[in-house]
Amino acid sequence: MASDENKARRRRQIAEAVWQLAAREGLEAVTLRQVADEAGVSMRLVQYYFGNRTALLLAALEILNEEAEAAAQQRIEALGNDIPARELARAVLMELLPLDEDRRRRYVVQSAYFVRFLTDPQLQEVARTADPALESLLASILEADPSTRSDDAFADAELLIAFAFGLQAEMLLDQLEVLHALRLLDRLLDRVLGQPR
Amino acid sequence: MASDENKARRRRQIAEAVWQLAAREGLEAVTLRQVADEAGVSMRLVQYYFGNRTALLLAALEILNEEAEAAAQQRIEALGNDIPARELARAVLMELLPLDEDRRRRYVVQSAYFVRFLTDPQLQEVARTADPALESLLASILEADPSTRSDDAFADAELLIAFAFGLQAEMLLDQLEVLHALRLLDRLLDRVLGQPR
DNA sequence: GAGATTTTGATGCGATCGCACCATAACACG
DNA sequence: CGTGTTATGGTGCGATCGCATCAAAATCTC
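^ Those are the sequences you sent over. The predicted structure of the assembly is below.
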């Protein structure tokens, strides 16, 4: 039936309202009534599609993560296959930075969920199963680089990703300009992979 | 008058209740009634000492930051003056990690405020004026190290601190063990300062 | 012990919250 | 065309929120 994709579209539309509200006023402003207003639908519809508020917040996060991964993969694949490993690793790490309004909004929302993970034991499981694929991906990229002889590519990947998350937070706070952040990223890549030139 | 320090004690006691609640159930659970219960005083007293909820949250953060800085400074000064620059830098960075319950609770609370900074324009100023001293401190430590010839110690300091913040987040999520985090920190120090041995 | 300060109590007001109930409009499909 | 699923709107209930008001204890200070 076509109603399935209509259903998915509706859910996405409502989830988008959740993101918008969360990014603008925080997760505690994500009430059923505000979400309904933001999405331009009735509060009853939000209940119809997601049940209760907890389920709404959880589903909105899942949809956000799906779209984020799809967008990141698309942006990286657009670079082509024949770029140097260093450039590829750089692109993966840059994906974690709020370099446009889309990603900025996304990481603001993710930060809000991050804090909830720290106090809500029910959500804590979701956080743990979300990321480790990222480290593996980056590690495999680093290992494929002939010019790099790292004794532990996975450790380097973990190191780089932790650094990128730190940059992300400081950029969200407007403590760090884009160009400055990229300069630090390149500096770290130099230290970890060896000078490129 | 001695009432001034009594007043400060009372404010600290109530602020402590704010931290406890925020670390356990998040900042949105910090209501005047809950804070009063947690502190073992009447709600009226919380109003008496802090006025409204906004002022309470702001004051609780300021007191938290003051205590954090004092504790960090004390812990670092306890190391003595004659330790190598690398060890000193390592100690400064370790101070940013949740290595005991005190710091864990503190960084959970700070993370909650961090997210509020992203949406509350009134608080955004506080975030910007909080940290830059940390980078300067670490940069001066790095510069004092004769075995290090960095072209830009401040950039190295920024890099290391961003990385430490990333570690902090992953540790708070229990995605990273303490020993693993310290191994990554040492690995990065090797890359930035040069191998120690 | 008088006077100032600190602390508590009871209580109410308007607003908002999540959630549920009921009725009905729009639409798909045999 | 009738029937059943899907989608929508309106509305109220109990709970909680921040904040305020009026009054009075309890404690401290000199």
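The mean pLDDT of chain A is 90. Residues 3, 7, 10, 41-45, 48-49 of chain A lie near DNA strand D (CB under 10 Å from a C1').

Shout if you want it in another format.
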